[in-house]
Amino acid sequence: MKKLNFLIVLFAVVSVVSCKKKDEPTLGDPPTAADAEFTYQPSTANPNIIEFTALNSTVQATWDLGNGLNASGTNVTGIYPNAGTYNVKLTVFTSGGSASTTQEVIIANSDPTLLDSPIYNALTGGAAGPGYKTWVIDSVVAAHFGVGPDPIGSAGYYPEWWAANPLDKAGVGLYDDRYTFHLNNFQFDMVNNGHVYVHNGLAGDFPGSYQNLNDYTAPYTDQLNKTWVVSEGIDTTITISQDAFIGMYTGVNTYKIINYSDTSLWLQYKHFDGGLHWYIRLIPEGFVSSGGGGPVATYELPIDCETVEPTFVVFGNSTATVIDNPDPSGINTSPRVIETVHGNETWAGFLVDLTTPLDFSTLGTIALKVWAPSAGVFRIKIENSSNTNDFVVLDVNVTTANAWEEIVVDFATAGALSNVYDRIVLFPGWDISNAGTFYVDDIVQQ
Length: 446
Description:
Layout: H1 2-18, E1 38-42, E2 49-54, E3 60-64, E4 70-72, E5 75-79, E6 84-94, E7 97-107, H2 118-124, E8 132-137, E9 145-149, E10 162-163, E11 178-182, E12 187-191, E13 195-198, E14 210-212, E15 215-219, E16 223-231, E17 237-240, E18 254-261, E19 264-270, E20 276-284, E21 313-315, E22 319-324, E23 336-341, E24 349-353, E25 365-371, E26 376-384, E27 387-398, E28 404-410, E29 423-427, E30 437-445
Antiparallel strand pairs: 1-2, 2-5, 3-4, 3-6, 6-7, 8-11, 8-20, 9-10, 9-20, 11-12, 12-16, 13-15, 14-15, 16-17, 17-18, 18-19, 19-20, 21-24, 22-23, 23-30, 24-29, 25-28, 25-30, 26-27, 26-29
């Protein structure tokens, strides 16, 4: 009995010791606003390069430099090529929490020399050039769009799982998008003509979207006056602000630059659900692609926009895309027409390549229907795509504004040779900059 009582007592002691509450770890005190104070001063090298210092050197520090870039560390540097006021925010972290402070940094004068870098010059044309450049998807090149694994596979930076053939995604609202990088204030404009292409897993985020070639086309407004920023490092990336993006939307707006030149921009970007990479190739608007592995898109006359919706090459900062006829009346009640918004160059326009060179031995004229915002000269050019110095140009007057009119030019009478010219180049609003919006339809030889 004594032995049993001893065991009961021992068990009770062990139970009390075992149930004793362990000491809980305690967090440190949270940082205060004073811990997040910082100073800044211009560098000795350049007044537009600012050196920032956190007053508390013992904390973990991250910075929003107000110029689209972030940094970490208690001593960092920000570069501000453009004059303006920038809100710089320092956030510090300790085991007890975080605290932040913000200061305004005023840059008195712009310094274009800070923008004179190869990547800025390629993206925008540079400070010595126009200071902006508009890019489009190189739709006539094989693999201009596609998908591959994340992490990358044996094929490297290439869409090895699926690569688009030329014009594979015509009609989804992708090839008529325009992306303009401005050097001034790093402005970014995304002009999408009312629609964008989004991954099927994100269609629910875009009201009014509808299925189109495996993914979704969605109504969307142009995203103008946004910003872009390049982060250079092991991976050089472009980040677009807010609701603007490039190519098919996959939930991200940061793009890794695989390579670039004045006439080509290859980008890789993430997928919202991980596990894969998307790829897209851009070229400057108006640049005629070399082909890059895929044939240049060509078409046969007549072009009526109902049976085939061509992809046009534009120049002079014009646009050209097939849309619903905004004025189905008079001589043209066709449901689909070409809309072209005249660029800021007097010679702006668009062109289309033909599968078969024009034969003027029996049919000597080219006719087309035009809706113009005002009367004026419409220039039509036929050209040898393999020798662009070989061409014939004729002008014709559009006599009616805001109504459909047929115009006709006689190339046979002008001495054009047969079976030489395989390109038609159209200059609506010839010799006028920003001449307005024109509509074109039913390009025929007769």
